[in-house]
Amino acid sequence: MTHFDLLLRGGLVIDGTAAPDAARHADVGVLDGRLTLLPPGAPAAARETEDLTGLVLAPGFIDVHTHSDGVTLIDGELGGDMVRAAVLQGVTTEICGNCGSSLFPALPGRLAAMRAETRVYFGGDVGMYEGFAEFAAAHAAVPRANHLTSLVGHGTLRAGVIGPVDRAATPGELDTMCALLDRALSAGAAGLSTGLIYTPGTYASTDEVVALAAVAAAHGKPYVTHLRDEMSRVEEALEEAVEIGRRSGAPLHVSHHKTAGKYAWGLTRRTLPKLAALRAEGMDVTCDVYPYTAGSTALGAMLPPWASDGGIAALTARLTDSGQRDLMRRAIAEGVPGWENTVGNGGWDRISIACAPRHPETEGHTIAELAAARGQDPVDMVAELLVAEQGEVTIISHSMIEDDVRRVLAAPYSMIGSDGVPKPGGRPHPRWAGTFPRVLGHYVRELGLLSLETAVHKMTGMAAARFGLAGRGVIRDGAHADLVVFDPGTVADGATFVDPLVPPSGIHSVIVAGRTVVRDGAETGARPGAVLST
Ligand SMILES: [Zn+2]
């Protein structure tokens, strides 16, 4: 008789697959970080046995879309509420490096210069790393509760090789970017990401991205994209992504798919059938989604791309020049071809400050409110705040409608990603602490939009298959013992826009690499997490 480290008895196993029998009663043994399935009540011995009667045992959730690249590096070994929010909601693997921004790779001579540019996205002094191995080593020195892996950001490649400037890559620069990407993917990074609304990624042509995506294709790894426009021109932007997927041969993954802004509301009625048709033709295309009608991003992304040409120092210089501010005001009022104009698609009253480290009094308020209180034009108020914060401000944008969110959640090829942007301090979007329980509680139990098995599959097996996480995201013999136990009758998000780090309810326990990291909703202090290579 096997003597397990841990024996989980009496639970309803939802195994993370899309199989018809994905939900069934079974006992699960854990030994040396691996799983063994047993018939209910089978004789077995264990150092520790837990009775899961009435509870669901699922693979640990894989958050396919985070910006948590540096949060444990900044926030120290034991972290704070910001660090623990992910594992408290059952996430056993985070995939960072999204939207074109990763903490590697960089040419050695460019590391210091790049640090200033990355502050905007990650906050604090997180540093930059030459390659995936150096990134993994930095994380290995700061014990973590769950696992992490990273995509390679195209914006990071571009910032390192070309600099934060608005021009095409030379053939030599493109070769260098491809070589850096190739090395990072060989070392274990999970794919290539772009953020084509963000500087400097937005300065790239379609051809440049095709060349880089072809490198991902050669590794069998996905091209993961924040589309060039998710608002009024989302359909054109999706066409570009499909072209990049087709010409490069890379599997295509559309990040946080949405049709945002008043001119795009309802357009998921067109984008989703398009994706479904491509899949029916045999194209390997998937997407992810978070269960909220608000997004979150950098305040600087509200400005036209030319404003950031030259990097933070150049942006700051323009923001302090009243003539340049007038040009920005006009660009926002009239639009700029090829630029996703968030404010023009909504308004400053839909945008609130999430994190402004030196001006916490602004957090939670809309730009419209803050400007009115100061008797200022919103663009002037934004300019002053960005200068004071050296560009490092994140915002929340209430830009979507519920019907679109539900349609994307229900699409059979969408998986769940929080798009969490955790930074020490601040008032982040509640998705970082609430995404997975919100899907299980609100969209599965309350609304019946998805079956429990389908929702779990979107959080586990589908995600592991897409991002090459072998032996994860499923409960089967020999799989890695990354698990979550939850109560399907009570699981719910606690995080709100007012109080964004309130832990969820109904997450009973979380197990990473065979060790219990969360019990009864609280961390145990175990730190078995690793940086995973794919
Ligand atoms: Zn994004």
TrEMBL record:
Listed SUPFAM superfamilies: Composite domain of metallo-dependent hydrolases (SSF51338), Metallo-dependent hydrolases (SSF51556)
Record GO terms (molecular function): hydrolase activity, acting on carbon-nitrogen (but not peptide) bonds, in cyclic amides; hydrolase activity, acting on carbon-nitrogen (but not peptide) bonds, in linear amides
UniProt xrefs under InterPro entries: Amidohydro_3, D-aminoacylase_insert_dom_sf, Metal-dep_hydrolase_composite, Metal_Hydrolase, Metallo-dep_Hydrolases_sf
Domain annotation Amidohydrolase: ranges: 48-518
Any Gene Ontology CC annotation: cytosol
Superkingdom as given in the UniProt entry: Bacteria
A Pfam family recorded for this sequence: Amidohydro_3
Annotated PANTHER family: COLLAPSIN RESPONSE MEDIATOR PROTEIN, HYDRANTOINASE/DIHYDROPYRIMIDINASE FAMILY MEMBER
Protein name stated in the entry: Dihydroorotase/N-acyl-D-amino-acid deacylase
Species per Swiss-Prot/TrEMBL record: Streptosporangium canum
Classification of source organism: Bacteria, Bacillati, Actinomycetota, Actinomycetes, Streptosporangiales
